[in-house]
From TrEMBL:
It comes from Acidovorax delafieldii (Pseudomonas delafieldii). SUPFAM superfamilies: NAD(P)-linked oxidoreductase. InterPro entries: AKR_Detox_Biosynth, NAD(P)_OxRdtase_dom_sf, NADP_OxRdtase_dom. The keyword Oxidoreductase applies. This is Aryl-alcohol dehydrogenase-like predicted oxidoreductase. Residues 15-314 form the NADP-dependent oxidoreductase domain.
Amino acid sequence: MQLRSLGRSGLQVSPLCFGGNVFGWTADEATSFALLDAWVDAGFNFIDTADVYSRWAPGHTGGESESVIGRWLKRSGKRHHIVLATKVGKDMGDGKVGLRPAYIRQAVEASLQRLQTDHIDLYQSHDDDTTVPLADTLGAYADLIRAGKVRAIGASNYSAARLQEALQTSERLGLPRYESLQPLFNLYDRAVFEDALQPLCVQQQVGVINFYALAAGFLTGKYRTAADAAKSARGANTTAKYLNDRGLRILAALDAVAQRYNATPGQVAVAWQMMQPGITAPIASATSVAQLHELVTATQLQLDSDALAQLDAASAQG
């Protein structure tokens, strides 16, 4: 496994990250444990979650994913095998939201307890919080790093302007900087990242761990008609966003390239992302070991210039 450097953090991560939003939600605990074991056994080390996962599910309050990972860590003893990333800032209810220093201190303790670990490798601001000075938020993270509770910090869902401002604040005040960015980016969702975030991250050596690598499953080819929305819990939202002329054009290109490489559309979609400038490790989820092995195989797929051009043309906007 060829590991990649995550920004300037010193963290070395696998070229694909397992998205933990499914743990305790669409993957029950036994399945989640099997997925985590299979991920590490395949040589991968990067796992991403968030305190808010999966608060959106009926009867859930948030923290379900972290708790499942924590129980797996306790049972497996594999903490030293993984780079563990989680996030803070999304609304957890009862006023628990945002990036105030006092709340960050409270939230990190709750995450550490659920994860059953003494440190988080990558702690990320899940959303920008413009109500709190960047210096205050970054200062709180500095305290956590000094205390050994966090190794590096990252940002998620930040605009290019705000990420640049945060990087400048860190440099000016001698504070830890965001070493990673977690943006929305895949073959369908390209514009926002490629416009200003990608050149900034490349220039500043900020690692990129993009989410929705498979566009909520659409790029696997799972959803090709409106009737396919019934295939999963998030099918209706997926088809509403992606099932259109451009989406079908992208699927057709994925099918063509996949056939040439004896691969699947999902594998080709992940391989394309891994070859884009600045991308460190796309984040993708699986709810079965078979799906996980398909993702693992995708990291071994090297697309040639013709395949990349075909996919770029099919996914061009406008």
